[in-house]
Specification:
Oligomer: single chain
Strand content: 5-15%
Low-confidence stretches: none
Strand order of the largest sheet: 3-2-1-4-5-6
Number of strands: 9
Number of helices: 13
Length: 296
């Protein structure tokens, strides 16, 4: 079968790894620059075509993929005279791989449908390293026929590819997942800092916890920094973590409830950002908690 022409917006760490993977699988890519030239230049050197606007991307492509940081950034790329919707081909599929607010996703899905296309939310699990090997977890949602249409492309990117339900469902589940991840990661970071404060060895704390029911990949990620000094096992910034927990809280409020458990994680992340630690990685929250305990 003829491979669809793919447009990609958002060549950050994850997006550039996905573009590299798609190119390695023989897909034709059209890309657009955002914050940095380096990843775009690398994609172009491998054969991608660079254009200037979201509209240009849509006019050239059967499938448009976005992997940007916030719902506001998605909306700015989708709407307006130079946005994706303005240039959308009949029957095109737009896929948001980022972590967005479900309410925003559902509104965009309606607008894309009115323009003759289909809009899928497909947030991601795992890391850029997994993306380069086609081993992502992809939490797809939206029109099932459109999902089935692009499934071969998603299979090139993901090891575990799900269709989870109606528009917005993927982003709901991703926010629940990331909320749990940040509650856990900050709890473990505090635990290692508490070990220092109470005069016990971090490795001993890990040995006991890893032998019991709290053993998890997340515990291993935080331990890699707390004990071994390697933060890269969870290459996710404090600023992005705070964004995701904030989106989770907003989603809860939109559903008419308030989250009890998000408060602690959000307080720790926001305080870390206020201390200039927003660009540090989540495992480095161990240092944030240690500093807070030292200051009383």
């Amino acid at each position: 079968m003829t491979k669809p022409a793919i447009g990609f917006i958002g060549l950050g760490l994850m997006g550039s790894a996905m573009v590299e993977r798609l190119q390695s699988q023989g897909h034709s890519l059209t890309v657009i620059a955002n914050k940095s030239r380096e990843n775009v230049d690398a994609a172009v050197a491998r054969g991608a075509t660079e254009v200037g606007t979201g509209r240009d991307v849509a006019e050239a492509c059967d499938v448009v993929m976005l992997c940007v940081g916030t719902s506001a950034q998605v909306e700015s790329r989708m709407r307006g005279p130079e946005g994706v919707i303005a240039g959308l081909r009949e029957g095109a599929v737009v896929i948001d791989f980022g972590t967005s607010l479900p309410g925003s996703t559902r509104k965009l899905a309606e607008e894309v449908a009115a323009a003759g296309g289909a809009y899928l939310d497909a947030p991601l699990g795992r890391t850029p390293m997994h993306a380069r090997d086609g081993l992502l977890n992809i939490m797809g949602a939206g029109d099932k026929a459109a999902f089935d249409k692009v499934r071969p492309v998603l299979d090139d990117l993901g090891e575990n590819v799900f269709h989870l339900g109606a528009s917005g469902t993927g982003h709901v589940i991703k926010l629940i997942n990331n909320f749990c991840a940040q509650c856990m990661s900050n709890a473990f970071a505090e635990a290692f800092a508490m070990a220092d404060r109470t005069g016990v060895d971090r490795q001993a704390v890990y040995d006991v916890m890893s032998a019991g029911p709290v053993a998890s990949a997340m515990l291993g990620f935080i331990k890699a920094y707390a004990v071994e000094g390697n933060p890269d096992m969870l290459a996710f910034s404090v600023r992005n973590a705070a964004k995701d927990v904030g989106y989770y809280r907003q989603m809860a409020e939109d559903a008419g409830v308030k989250s009890f458990m998000a408060k602690g994680a959000m307080q720790a992340l926001e305080e870390a950002i206020s201390m200039g630690r927003g660009d540090t990685l989540v495992p480095e929250q161990v240092d944030f908690f240690a500093r807070k305990f030292e200051s009383g």
